[in-house]
Amino acid sequence: MKVSLLIPVYGVEKYIEKCAVSLFEQTYEDIEYIFVDDCTPDNSMNVLSGVIERYPKRKDHTRIIHHDRNKGLAQARNTALEAATGDFVLNVDSDDYLELQAIERLCAVADKKKADVVVFGFYSVYVKGRVACPNMYHFVDKESYLKSLLEKKNTSCVWGKFMARELYRKTGIRAIPGLNQGEDYAVIPRLLYYAEHIVMIEDCLYNYVQYNNEAYTKSFKREHIDDLLWADSVLCDFFLSVSENHSYESILYRAKLRTKTYMLKIAHTLADIQDISKVYLDIPQKYYKDLSIADRVILELVHLKCYRLILCFTKTGFWLKRMLKSS
Q: Which sequence ranges are marked TM in the entry (predicted)?
């Protein structure tokens, strides 16, 4: 079984060495490495080239593709995927890294279970340590899992899914160029809808670095609000078109509410909060009861137009998270 590792590179000169070493030192042999230089402005590619020279056996199986201009994370992933020749693919962000036995373990599970998707756990890595986040979801059936992804009860991160390349080929589903926030959320549920056999394992095999604030997806921008609404729209259009008897309708309503509260939590200005407060006003109140207490409080503050209080509430949460990441 051949595996393709797909790695976009942009602004990671402090992290790319650790990432690449973890990939080249995998205990599994039949791996091809596809790095996509998305016109990174720093020294990332020179650092990567130096690491490649230290692994001559892996060098012949390594390909570097250079974009002629910065195209964003989605297109970088698509470029890598189009170049892949493996039976299975795994996306790896270039500021993160793998456990050394990750690919061997994933291949063994995929082969034994005849799976076309293997979902696994990860470590959240902070400055002073890491926290295990095993995949504790108990798979019942595909529809239940898809609904949990849509409601954001489980992570849709593409790097947590070991997938047969054939799944991409037969569906034609790709990352959406220009969608830079919520890009995985817009892709993974649609892709997994067509999966024939999804297997879950608890093993933490991926290290998700939380302290790189320069990463593609770590910094908040005003246009991220539009991106998240775009991702919701893509999923709503898809699941309403494929579902019978509107079976996904209530799930999609709750998903929209969770998107709204998430946007309110990451907004940095009063103007952003006021703009976000205007979206999804048509969702029936009965769907609010399924949200967390914190989310219901935020939406009640929206109803009361207490925008400054929302900003104070969310900024307190933001600084608490920053303190956790630096501790």
A: none
**For residue range 168-177, what is the model confidence (pLDDT) as tens digits?**
999 999 999 9
Q: Contact, 225 vs 276, CB < 8 A? A: yes
- d(C-alpha 139, C-alpha 198), whole Å: 9
- 72 class by beta-carbon count within 10 Å (0-12 exposed, 13-18 middle, 19+ buried): buried
* Cα angle: 112, vertex 166, 183; to 5 degrees: 105
Parse the chain into domains and list their residue ranges. Answer: 3-209, 223-325
CA 290-267-150 angle, 5° bins: 35
This prediction's pTM: 0.90
Cα–Cα dist 113/78, whole Å: 28
Quickly list H helices, 157-306: 165-171, 183-193, 223-242, 249-266, 270-277, 293-303
Note whether 8 and 44 are within 8 A (CB). Answer: no
Q: Where are the alpha helices (DSSP H) in the chain?
A: 16-24, 44-53, 56-59, 73-83, 102-113, 142-150, 165-171, 183-193, 223-242, 249-266, 270-277, 293-303, 307-325
CB atoms within 10 A of CB 263: 25
In this structure, what token pair is assigned to residue 164? 């047969």
Residue 281 and residue 285: Cα distance in Å, rounded?
A: 10
Assess if CATH 3.40.50.2000 describes domain 3-209.
no
- Under 8 Å between Cβ of 6 and 81: yes
Task: Please check whether residue 45 is in contact with residue 37, taking contact to mean a CB–CB distance below 8 angstroms.
Answer: yes
